[in-house]
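Note on ligand handling. Small-molecule inputs were canonicalized before submission; formal charges were left as drawn, and no protonation-state enumeration was performed. Where a ligand contained multiple stereocentres, the stereochemistry in the source SMILES was retained. For zinc ion, this procedure yielded the string shown in the input block below.
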Amino acid sequence: MNDYSWLDGIDEAQIKRERAKARQLRRTRWWQQKTAAGTCYYCGQRVAHRDLTMDHLVPLTRGGRSTKDNLVPCCKECNNKKKSLLPIEWEDYLKRFL
Ligand SMILES: [Zn+2]
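Structure output:
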């Protein structure tokens, strides 16, 4: 059985709302400017504009919100890593780019 105890207290309706907000923010000038350089926030690599995804620094499932200071452009590789790694492994992965 998976351990979903960290989901306690997080409202699914809230997550849906924040996801919708993120989608709206993707269409703004603010996001265009943020992705204009084509640089991944985590690894710093330059990637094609279309390969940048929008990532929540604090994931919605952990109570993060779709606010401008919680949203960063991120390459697909980092995005996949962030999803598949444990938080501690993700920290180690990030250290490689410091
Ligand atoms: Zn990256």
